[in-house]
Write a structure and sequence with these properties.
mainly alpha
């Protein structure tokens, strides 16, 4: 039993290490994280239902999971290829297309929830009624941009 728990603990450690590698080294993953943060903030301000929140969480997981798989495929391809290889290029492009398809589907879901269900309008009303919240949100934008474009450069 103790050995199984240790193996489970180690598998979580490996998964968290992989997540950290992707956060640190992949700008697109950081873009997805920042997008998920702002979508979550607007969903909360817009009083999205629990079901809508769950759907958004599925979208976040789907897109970020696809980005993690894309990164793994790209790194394996880069490791195996010596010079230009058309098959490697195709594999990397197909993996990137998988992320793109997930992201587009998530945008469609977001449009349905935020526009179709009126969540965006409620969130905007909240911001107009609570200007302090709008200011706090505005202050986070430079931090988010730094995280996306500069976080991975620090070595």
């Amino acid at each position: 039993m103790g050995k199984n728990i240790r193996k489970l603990h180690e598998s979580f450690q490996h998964a968290l290490r992989g997540l950290g590698l992707c956060i640190h080294g992949e700008r697109n993953f950081r873009v997805h994280m920042v997008a998920a943060f702002y979508v979550t903030v607007f969903a909360l301000m817009g009083r999205a239902s629990a079901a809508e929140g769950a759907i958004l969480c599925i979208c976040f997981g789907l897109t970020m999971g696809a980005e993690l798989m894309n990164t793994a495929i790209e790194r394996l391809c880069d490791r195996q290829a010596s010079g230009y290889d058309g098959y490697v290029r195709n594999a990397k492009d197909i993996a990137a297309a998988g992320v793109f398809v997930c992201a587009v589907a998530c945008v469609a879901v977001g449009v349905c929830i935020f526009i179709g269900e009126g969540v965006l309008l409620v969130a905007l009303r909240f911001l107009l009624e609570h200007l302090w919240a709008a200011m706090v949100l505005l202050v986070t934008v430079p931090v988010a941009l730094w995280f996306i474009f500069h976080y991975g450069r620090i070595q």
